[in-house]
Specification:
Layout: H1 3-21, E1 31-36, E2 55-64, E3 80-81, H2 90-99, E4 103-111, E5 113-114, E6 117-118, E7 120-121, H3 126-144, E8 148-153, E9 155-156, H4 160-176, E10 182-185, H5 193-205, E11 211-212, H6 225-238, E12 246-249, H7 262-271, E13 277-281, H8 283-286, H9 292-304
Parallel strand pairs: 1-2, 1-13, 2-4, 4-8, 7-9, 8-10, 10-11, 12-13
Antiparallel strand pairs: 2-3, 5-6
Helix pairs in contact: 3-4, 4-5, 6-7, 7-9
Length: about 300
């Protein structure tokens, strides 16, 4: 091959790669996730319908680095369990995973409140917090045979760089140690510290974050389909390359509701190749209505991914 032919070949390959890089990112999976255990409503894993043709993640809510007392205080990374351990025990985790091979179970860190108080991300130092967090979470994850973690801190005492370094190092260490296989983050659009902290975390540690469980229900109640579609595209841009999940709350507190077109929007996103999955907050609130929105969500995902296998 002469020099000119080689040059043409290399130029062509470079052009093709450049074109490919500009194509829309296809979601890595069609995932259904459900937060469970935060409201102490006696909900069990086995209560929730599980479609065998989706990847199904339960997310235990919550593990929190606060004392488990009537007046809780921060513990600098020493995580304790705050979910309903009576109904969501290690043996029950093992049971649901053995019955359904498409099920994985994670735990979520933080949350909005702890025993009615604001749950703040608070540390003494990066090294001590990360060390304590890795140790305490490894113990919980191994005891419960869990698969991943979700980051849902919503209030911050520390600065942005500290949050990024702590959470980024925590996820990286747990993955490198083989303790977890996936990690997600659960931001929402508040135009303030939540947005800044999570986007900074994404910019530095996107390579270790598998899913973005974006809280679209934090937008105003009465959100329309067209507004939701714009919000979703904004988050695709903010978390570039990420696997963005659509979300709904069965509390009815905000966002795009089923009666206003949530599933219509999900089908539209699916047809555009943008729907990375759906998550629901939460099983505790859905129990009374028979999990009808969980069934509908999984049906949409299953038709997109009939040949799914784990």
């Amino acid at each position: 091959m002469g020099f000119s032919e080689l040059f043409i070949l290399l130029f062509t390959l470079h052009s093709l790669l450049a074109m490919a890089s500009r194509q829309p990112t296809v979601p890595k999976s069609y995932l259904f996730s459900e937060y469970i255990g935060a409201e102490d409503n006696n909900v069990k894993f086995s209560d929730v319908p599980i479609n065998p043709n989706v990847e199904f993640h339960y997310i235990l809510a919550f593990a929190i680095d606060y004392t488990n007392s009537s007046s809780p205080s921060p513990t600098n990374g020493e995580f304790k369990i705050f979910w309903d351990t009576h109904n969501l025990s290690p043996s029950q985790v093992s049971s649901i995973k053995s019955q359904h091979t498409n099920v994985k179970v994670a735990l979520s860190l933080g949350g909005d409140t702890v025993r009615g108080k604001t749950c703040n991300f608070t540390i003494l130092s990066v090294d001590s917090w990360v060390s304590n967090a890795v140790s305490s979470l490894t113990k919980i994850i191994q005891e419960y045979n869990l698969d991943g973690i979700d980051i849902d801190y919503e209030h911050f005492v520390s600065d942005q760089d500290t949050f990024v370094e702590c959470i980024g190092k925590l996820i990286t260490t747990l993955k490198n140690n083989g303790v977890i296989t996936f990690a997600s983050i659960a931001p929402f659009d508040d135009d303030d510290e939540v947005k800044r902290n999570y986007m900074a975390l994404w910019n530095s540690y996107a390579h270790v974050i598998d899913y973005v469980n974006f809280q679209f229900y934090a937008y105003d109640k009465g959100t329309t389909v067209s507004q939701f579609m714009r919000y979703f595209q904004t988050q695709i841009d903010n978390y570039a390359g990420g696997n963005i999940l659509a979300s709904i709350t069965t509390e009815g507190s905000g966002g795009l509701s089923p009666k206003n077109g949530f599933f219509k929007a999900c089908n539209r996103l699916k047809s555009q190749g943008k729907l990375g999955g759906i998550f629901v907050w939460s099983a505790d609130n859905s129990k009374a209505s028979g999990f009808k929105y969980e069934k509908k969500s999984q049906a949409i995902l299953a038709t997109s991914h009939k040949n799914f296998s784990v």
